[in-house]
Design goal:
The chain has 18 helices and 13 strands. 43% of the residues lie in helices and 14% in strands. The protein folds into two domains: 206 residues, Glycogen Phosphorylase B (Rossmann fold); 213 residues, Rossmann fold, CATH 3.40.50. It starts with 8 loop residues before the first helix and ends with a helix. By secondary structure, the chain is an alpha/beta fold.
Length: 435
Amino acid sequence: MKEKRFVFPAQNAAELIPAWSSYLTDCCPVLGKWFVNGLVRIFYGNRLFLRWAYRRQRSVAAREKIPGPILVVADLNIGDAINLQVACTTLKQLFPDRKIHYAINHKAFGMLTHHPDIDRVIPIFSGAAIPTDEDIVKLNEISGQSDYTLIFNFCPFFTSETFSESGASVLNHYPLTMEIANNELRGKPVHHLRPKIFHYLTLLFPEATQKYHPVLKDAAVYLDEESMGIARAFLKEHGLLGKEKLVLFNPDATSRYTRFPKTEQIRLLENLLKSETVVHLLLGSGFVFQHVEQELLQKLGTDLAQKVTIIPKIFSLETYAALIDACDLYVTNDTGPLHIAATRKNTHDRHPLRNRTAVYAIFGATPAHIYAYDSTGELYFPAPQDAPSRVFVSESKCRNVTCVNKLSKKCKTVRCFDGLNPELMADEMIRYLKN
């Protein structure tokens, strides 16, 4: 079905502001960054506005006369479905007697449908950059035909009017995103999305927080036996089942502003594969950047290519997650699979898998403090693995807070990965594998 552009103000802001800032930073990178961040700090990241937003949402939540099921609406992408599950796990602790339903990208459905804190997972979003006609029809049907009394909307393309037929109290994402913007611009430590969601909900419901003492739970996925069996068979076929020092490399991304340039990816792969420490490398397929895996393999040459096996594109995300769990090191751009790697992997009956994969990510446009994982310092949030996590952040002189919406950026000159050295990055990864 053809994509439809809505006329909601939220979408206009979500698309127009990043696009406008792109033209400004193209012209004047440093001055543009300073100007954009200053405007956002004055208006959207303002502490007075933030306190007002919290007060308003507490009053909206208090209108519930007979508390019923709660609907949590995630943002559109796979990574959003993984990260925003924290809202469900927190709400379940705050309101243990209420049903929690979760509307997400349909591709993440299989990994979350057996989550113990989510009573119903609803696969709605198709994965398009903006909601489609079909997405909005499904969402209206779910919210309008159910007895929800409270809806949490974490998608910037929807407003309260989207759910007007439901009769529920609607709490939009504004206090959460306003506080994240404030923290990012003030350089405060650990303002990753996951702990900030937990913080937002506990501030919103202080009485329930005091009564039940919720804790921030690790994000988790639950894999079916068939998908895990496909992963095991694939590894066995290539003589890799049970091998140590396996690396999985994801060359794909959702945007050119978040994809490490192909020439730099080749340098990184060459240095990893030349090392005897790396036993074998699994190479992910390109979904947004089609055939990127084949292009990389051709550039590596015959000798190095012998240590590489391409992961078939037909594999499900559940099988992909099982392959991540089988590897000692996962290297990726900033994209949805990063957040799958940064989860606890379990079977459907809740038995933990290996969960010893080091997660190394390469960040360009996206503010790394909000979405990346790093266990080496106090400024970042660590991935919930029994292994280190690390983020390599560029020295881009024009990166600003609006770069969080990379799909709406229009920059002609890509400075997102300035200052990153593939050789140094590879050396650090090899040192970890040696130890």
